[in-house]
Batch of 2 targets.
Target 1
Amino acid sequence: MADRVIVEVDPDLSDLIPGFLTRKRTDVAMILGAIARRDHAEVGRIAHRLTGEGGSYGFTLMTETGRLLEQAAAARDDSQLTMLAHQLLDYIDRLEIVVLPSSD
């Protein structure tokens, strides 16, 4: 397996992370389906949501990939969209979550 990607998260978010990542996997599947339908507007909507949500949870690369997906959707670049969607899924699969110590 490829190298793990270690992301440190706030202890207040740790219970939310598994569900969040499950939803992001679903988002990638939705992106791939939208690409197949050539529904670039839908890809753009999902990518925009990824851009905002990724940073909120501490997943900087998810935010960056969301921005690139938005740009590729605007350019209607299906090959770039497909590559980025698979990169995002790979990133999610390689995540290793480290919960930071509580400040209490």
Target 2
Amino acid sequence: MKSIEIHSLPISEVLQDLSNYFGTRCVNICDEYIVKIPSSWGSGYIKGSSFSSGLGIIQYLCKFKTDLEIKLVVNNIHPVKFLYCLNGHFEHRFQNSHDVHSLNQYQNVIVASKGNNGHILRFKAKTNTNLCSLEINRKEFKPLMDCYLQKSIDELQYIFRDESAKKSFYHEGFYSFLISGYFEEINAFMHNGLIKRTFMEAKAFQILTSQLIQFEDDMLEGGKREIFRHSEVKSLEEAVRIIALELEHLEPVHSLANRVGLNQNKLQDGFHKMYALSVNAYIRKERLKLAVSLLKNTNISMMEIMERLGLKSQSYFSKIFKDNFGHSPSKFRKLTTLKSS
């Protein structure tokens, strides 16, 4: 395993030290520092920015030829790090600790080291890794958040008020679908210069805000958590599959949520995030889609169509169909039959 030791802060100096190890240049574009990984080491880049608020972002988008350990071990108090594994795999441990924490896609950790102990990041060889580190200098950041901290849960107050790093802190979880969307926006952003810088600082605050809200949600018992995490997409996909297969005898939303391992609020949040619809609105859309297919392609009766849709009220069926297509089901069938003939 190759090893790199970084004995510097802030982010600009971290990137400069990395470029020296790689034997390449550190490019500065409006205070965004970019280091392209040379082909002798692998491929990709590492880039980062610091902001006057005490926030900073480092993005590792890389693939190394051999296992690589980056040791961030400057003899100083290190920032609090919010680490997000957007793709691939990486490992984290505290300096002077043998406990290794492995993180895969959709996982994140909040880490703060004790005293001047640093952080060790390990990257697996031949693995495309996308890691984002949101970094917070507590001394600079705390005055901006002092009012908020007074109203926060004890754990959050502890993280941000511990300017002298008296204790270490580690919290592992799965980041939310909302946070995932912020990273997608960062990757898709095409502007440069001042526009890029203000955009990145705004996104750093959005990610932090969402993470603090999620942290409070993480403190709840599993069944009471309401924020939809990216790792729970599979549960959402299972709910969609059940709806498609069981429209005729579909169970209530709360039963559907229990069946896929989510609570009702989290299932609703997931449907809003993925489909911009409530669960019931999504079910109604699927029923109407099936109704159109049956009216166009079969001669079965309206009562049988309603049964297949899982509906019992003919007046309700006619109303929702007309609201969406401008005609009653029977008139729609006549019009489509005339067109096909």
